[in-house]
Specification:
This protein is α/β, with parallel strands linked by helices. The chain contains 10 helices and 5 strands. Strands 2-1-3-4-5 form a 5-stranded mixed sheet, with helices on both faces. The longest helix has 23 residues. The N terminus and C terminus are likely disordered.
Length: 182
């Protein structure tokens, strides 16, 4: 079992072992489906999962592992490591193919506002992901900031963002990816 899947379900917290086991089996099956589908991707882009913009912070603990499971590579965050402050020069040197703004503790609406504020900075506009319209904004508070059963939702959202071509005909994903529709 991977570290990010070592989570409690509401059922296990309430002492309902049978329901908890069934929920955990379903979560694992969903995660395995995402990993299998992402393995069909023809590319493995670099994807910087950003936890904060001012100052910039990289994703923590399980976030880089989610990026990896979605068949991408986070050039800045490290699995199992805490979030850390990064400098714009480090982000510029990595020049990721894709940036996912999953700002810690913020709603999707607030993260969209923060994305707009970041767009005003000169370092931001020089990044390949920004120039190519490959910046996704997600609800960091609901999906990426906590290691709980919604982490599989996080993986599904991330995989759909990273490999849009594999998910285009699928249900919509909460977030936005440039001007693209999912």
């Amino acid at each position: 079992m991977t570290r990010w899947m070592m989570c409690n379900t509401p059922e296990s917290s309430c002492g309902w072992a049978d329901r908890a086991d069934a929920s955990i089996r379903e979560l694992r099956a969903r995660a395995q489906r995402v990993v299998a589908r992402a393995a069909d991707a023809t590319s493995r882009p670099t994807c910087f999962l950003m936890e904060w913009t001012d100052p910039p912070f990289c994703g923590r603990q399980w976030s880089p592992q989610l990026v990896d499971l979605a068949s991408a590579f986070d050039p800045i965050g490290r699995a199992g490591q805490p979030s850390r402050r990064v400098i714009w020069e480090e982000i510029g040197a990595a020049d990721p193919d894709l940036i996912v703004l999953a700002l810690c503790g913020n709603s999707l609406e607030r993260n969209c506002h923060e994305a707009d504020a970041s767009a005003a900075g000169p370092s931001w506009s020089r990044l390949r992901a920004v120039r190519e319209g490959r910046v996704a904004v997600v609800d960091g508070n609901a999906y990426f900031s906590r290691p709980h059963s919604r982490i599989v939702d996080s993986l599904e959202i991330l995989a759909a963002i990273v490999h849009l071509q594999l998910y285009r005909a699928r249900r919509s994903v909460e977030g936005r990816l440039g001007d693209a529709t999912l």
